[in-house]
Amino acid sequence: MIRHLTCSSDTYISKRFIDNKWVYTGNTGNAGTLDLYKLYNQTATRVGNTRVPNTELTRLLLNFDDSWITNARYAGAFDINNASVKATLVLHDAYGGQQVPDNVKIVAYPLSAPFREGIGRDIVYLGDVDNANWLTSSNTTTWYVTGCGLGGPFSDPVDYYTTNANGALEASQTLIEGTEDLVMDVTRHVRDKQFGLLSLTAFRISYTGSLEDDQNSYFVKRFSSRSAYAQEKRPYIKLEWDASIFDDSLQPVIDQDNTCYVSFKKNGIPAYASYLNSNLLGNNCMIMKLSSGSWSASFSASQYSGVEGPVIGQYYSTFAISSLDPVVSFNVNASGSFSTEVSWLTPSNVLLKSDRKLKFTMPSNVPTIDYKRIIVSFYNLNSEYYTDSFMNISIATFDPGSQQIAVVKQPRVSLNVPIKNLHISILNALTGKVIIAPNIIQKSTLTSLNQFEHFWELHTSALPIGGSYVLQAYVYDGKNLIKVGTTSAPFTIKEQQCC
């Protein structure tokens, strides 16, 4: 799953020496770029007969709306502490052919208090007076030290925090060429905010202290602001996590762990499994039973819970059957496989549901998949989606060489090929540019598989409004990403209408 936190306010504050005077109150809240630079000895102040070099400086301020995380966490629908959750602060480079500083380190620290963005646009003479600026952060609130200049522990009255109970809070990136996007891991910061260890999901971004204090100029590293015309260039925090499940029902294997899932519904809506008016919840709340003639085996089953919390109506069991079992061994030797029926029962062995058959094979008999001939079909794909909504995509995978096709009068349903490590990428439909690449680390692009098909979900905040996009499937084989099938039909993202 991928979901973006939007930038709710941004600006950069500056101290500049313009027309032989210091300018501290310039505001750039509505400017299209966030300009980070340091000018040393480009101007000077005369003190008596001495020319004292000036150091002119800017720092960036950004705040992000994390209300969705807070609401979801309190509702038990998002586990911010899950190991697969990653938050990445992204600022896109706004290179326009200008000179840029290279081999510079940029640092981000969490702000202690909100700032007022302001309405300034003048980035040349900084003539728009408003908050925030070098002297004040919000209305008449001044910085503890000008320029959002005082850092310290979370417990202290400071402008920005350098440490809290979990340790140092610096996020950083070194720009080698100077034209790179800023991409910083801020998982700690987003997480700590949720548990009261930070005040905001907001950042002060600057060159390191050593760069600000040295006798060099660094002009100018430009990022697109939230006021930029190109929406895809605006700042955001990308949240990613693994929301996938993998049901082995289509291809269970003897002598290996298999996982089967089951869904319970009431009137077509997901509902808890229940018995005697009591919902079955949590771990080991159910039994999964395999049976074949007089042979049977029972395994513990639990309610499924992932990053997005316990899932209503979804249960699973992870189990293995052994080739040393005489009944299993006899069937495998006779037919090459062992088939069972699946039942889901209460802990007291009362039947709740019988929903499928499993056909187990030995590991050596699992068919090899030729990814070059796999046909991928995306369905349940709309031509348009609104912002702040979910895309729920079903994916059919078919290997035309694995099934003997016969001409029949009745419609025929092809078996889906269960593919582990099947990822979805999103491309610009017109240019082919990758918008979302397969993520094999956080597995945010990894598809799920139930007993019927693959499926994948995405929040539309991860895609800019107005663009036309297509889906492309990839398989990660442990070393390489392999393109599978062709792209989907195009779709677009449009603004949600309020009325």
Quote the distance from N terminus to C terminus: 29 Å
- How large is the count of helical segments? 4
Question: Strand content of the residues, in percent?
Answer: 35-45%
Largest sheet: 11 strands, antiparallel
Mean of pLDDT: 94
Unreliable stretches covering 5 or more consecutive residues: none
Shape: elongated
Q: What is the CA-based Rg, rounded? A: 29 Å
What is the β-strand count? 36
Secondary-structure content class = mainly beta
Q: Which percent bin holds the helix content?
A: under 10%
Question: What does this protein look like?
Answer:
It is elongated, with a radius of gyration of 29 Å. Strands 1, 2, 3, 4, 5, 6, 12, 13, 14, 15 and 16 form an 11-stranded antiparallel sheet that branches. The chain has helices spanning 67-74, 187-194, 209-213, 326-335; strands at residues 2-18, 21-23, 33-47, 50-64, 86-91, 104-110, 136-138, 141-142, 151-153, 160-164, 167-168, 171-175, 182-185, 202-207, 218-224, 236-240, 258-263, 265-266, 269-270, 274-275, 278-279, 286-292, 295-306, 309-319, 338-345, 351-360, 375-379, 384-386, 390-398, 422-428, 434-436, 448-449, 454-459, 468-476, 481-484, 491-494. The model has no long low-confidence stretch (mean pLDDT 94). The chain has 499 residues and is mainly beta.
Using brief descriptors, characterize the structure shown.
499 residues; mainly beta; 11-stranded antiparallel sheet; 6-stranded antiparallel sheet; 36 strands; 44% strand; elongated
Write the layout of secondary structure elements.
Blueprint: E1 2-18, E2 21-23, E3 33-47, E4 50-64, H1 67-74, E5 86-91, E6 104-110, E7 136-138, E8 141-142, E9 151-153, E10 160-164, E11 167-168, E12 171-175, E13 182-185, H2 187-194, E14 202-207, H3 209-213, E15 218-224, E16 236-240, E17 258-263, E18 265-266, E19 269-270, E20 274-275, E21 278-279, E22 286-292, E23 295-306, E24 309-319, H4 326-335, E25 338-345, E26 351-360, E27 375-379, E28 384-386, E29 390-398, E30 422-428, E31 434-436, E32 448-449, E33 454-459, E34 468-476, E35 481-484, E36 491-494
Parallel strand pairs: 9-10, 28-36
Antiparallel strand pairs: 1-2, 1-4, 1-16, 3-4, 3-15, 4-14, 5-13, 5-16, 6-12, 6-14, 7-8, 10-11, 17-24, 18-19, 20-21, 22-23, 22-25, 23-24, 25-26, 27-29, 29-33, 30-31, 30-34, 32-33, 34-35, 34-36
